[in-house]
Design brief:
By secondary structure, the chain is an alpha+beta fold. The protein has one domain (3-148): Roll (CBS-domain). It has helices at residues 3-10, 23-33, 52-68, 96-105, 125-147, 154-157; strands at residues 16-17, 37-42, 45-51, 110-115, 118-124. The chain has a 3-stranded mixed beta sheet. It has a two-stranded antiparallel ribbon with strand order 4-5. Strand 2 (37-42) and strand 3 form a beta hairpin. The longest helix has 23 residues, at 125-147. This is CBS domain-containing protein.
Length: 158
């Protein structure tokens, strides 16, 4: 299975913001759309990635700073001050097994997918887990069907 297979199933909805977007607007967008990342675009190019990890980090940092004295409100922050400006980018031809290893190795839950400079989407760790689960479930059903007389699960009999 390849990243392109995940993108086909996932669909092409993509949430983007500019570096000048207020962080508070991003939080609303992420909450309203139940997404954990926003792609940061400028002049049609990917310049960063904003995830809930960066937001939690800046909130914690500001909380610590407030103990030292007054700080500007988090609501006034812009994406450019918080985003990951060097996200790991993957190609849609990448094997899902390799992708899982890369995500685990670099502790990344979201990875932008780019082909020849064009942003195709973002793949999350959840997307990968779901795709692998569905592929294994399909294979299991096919193997059981091939065997032919596989015993019915006890839960189905009850």
């Amino acid at each position: 299975m390849r990243v392109s297979d995940i993108l086909k199933v996932k669909g092409n909805t993509l949430f983007t913001v500019s570096p000048a977007t207020l962080l508070s607007d991003c939080v609303i967008t992420m909450a309203d759309n139940d997404v954990g990342s926003l792609v940061v675009m400028e002049r049609g190019e990917l310049v960063g990635l904003l995830t809930f990890r960066e937001i939690i980090h800046i909130l914690a940092q500001r909380q610590k700073e407030q103990r030292q004295g007054p700080t500007p409100p988090v609501a006034d922050l812009r994406v450019r001050h918080v985003m990951n400006s060097e996200p790991i980018v993957i190609n849609d031809d990448m094997n899902v097994i390799d992708l899982r290893g890369l995500m685990v190795q670099h502790h990344q839950r979201y990875m932008p997918v780019v082909r020849q400079g064009t942003l195709l989407g973002v793949v999350s760790f959840h997307d990968v887990a779901k795709a692998v689960h569905e592929e294994q479930d399909f294979e299991n059903r096919m193997l059981k069907s091939y065997i032919g007389d596989w015993p019915v699960a006890e839960a189905a009999l009850a």
